Amino acid sequence: MLPIDEFFKNVLYDHKLGYYTSRLPFGEKGDFITSPKISYLFSEMIAIWMVSTWELFGKPKNFNIVELGPGDGSLTNVLLKSFLKFPEFNSIKKIFLYEKSVYLKKIQKKNIPNKKVNWINNYNVIKKGPVVFFGNEFFDALPIKQFKRKMNSILEKNYTLDKNYKIKEVFNKASKTDIRMLKSFKSLKKLNFIELPKFGFQELEKIIKKISELKGCVLMIDYGYLKSINENTLQSVIKHKKNNLLDNLGKADITAHVNFDLLNEFFLKNGLKVNNVVTQKEFLENMGIVERAKIVAKKMKFSEQSDLYFRIKRLLSPSSMGDLFKVILAYKFNKNNFAGFK
């Protein structure tokens, strides 16, 4: 019997058979598509945000960028290209890619022809700050725990095998440690069904430690909700279509919606300041993506313009990714006027 976060950790990250360790899930030929693959303008906006953050920090001589879960390297490549337009910044910045999958690391190394990019398994190599962490659809891919309140008890969902070796779910009394953690968050207090990103919090604790030590921030873009909800948000996708959660294990993507209310509370509890959570639409528009698209479109044929605007619409439309995706920024710094957050 396994808690569901342990179960899905094996399914997604097992060294030989895990979903993220044995296949390339991104793009039209994969199972899902991310913003950097939809339009390079998304990555350009992140590049501009990085440069403006460096300026906000007072143009320090050391400036570290860590991309969390860099996928196939698409975003990093656009960052590298964009940074060439800012020579002073480009000469001092250091880029680190935090990737746990050996398989994806190989693909990234093949796709990113830049020898100055460093792959890391932990943040100990970063000695001088500040440091900026960036994750696009990083947090949703980390396994979560699920609990329910019954009378005065808190029960955790586990998976076990029945007599016919089929997976079934069972609820058992939660551990005292987990109960303590659940009770410590105001945003979870009134819920009868609770999702807790315990693995995610462990990852964030390492990031927060480094930010607290060297100053800096973490910018995360992910799909999720602003206020805590009583819902099971675990979902599975294969070839861009919904998949039954327990079918095609190791061959389908499994994610959960991010609770930004809880994330906000977690950052504050751990000594970081947090800017208001904004939607992806607001953030990208504040960064000037529409103006940039108009400039780029001038040099294009009509068919290319149509494709460009179709892709931008996908990123910004409330019915597509525009409102579903949220942007959160947590930081250790005395100013709060970061670009993208009005």
Task: Please give the CATH class.
Answer: Alpha Beta
Strand content: 15-25%
- Sheet of most strands: 9 strands, mixed
Q: Classify the helix fraction into a percent range.
A: 25-40%
Output the CATH topology: Rossmann fold
CATH architecture: 3-Layer(aba) Sandwich
Residue-averaged pLDDT: 92
Number of domains in the coordinates?
A: 1
Strands, count: 17
Q: Which ranges are low-confidence, i.e. pLDDT below 50, for 5 or more consecutive residues?
A: none
Radius of gyration: 20 Å
What's the total helix number? 13
First-to-last CA distance: 48 Å
Order of helix and strand elements from N to C terminus: EHHHHEHHEHEEEEEHEHEEEEEHEEHHHE
Shape designation: globular
Decide which structural class fits the backbone: alpha/beta
List the helices and strands and how they pair.
Blueprint: E1 2-3, H1 4-13, H2 19-22, H3 35-38, H4 40-56, E2 63-68, H5 74-83, H6 87-92, E3 93-98, H7 102-111, E4 117-120, E5 131-136, E6 145-150, E7 153-161, E8 167-173, H8 176-183, E9 193-196, H9 198-214, E10 216-225, E11 235-238, E12 241-243, E13 253-255, E14 258-259, H10 260-269, E15 273-274, E16 278-279, H11 280-286, H12 289-297, H13 302-316, E17 325-332
Parallel strand pairs: 2-3, 2-5, 3-4, 5-10, 10-14
Antiparallel strand pairs: 1-7, 6-7, 6-9, 7-8, 10-17, 11-12, 11-13, 15-17, 16-17
Helix pairs in contact: 4-5, 12-13
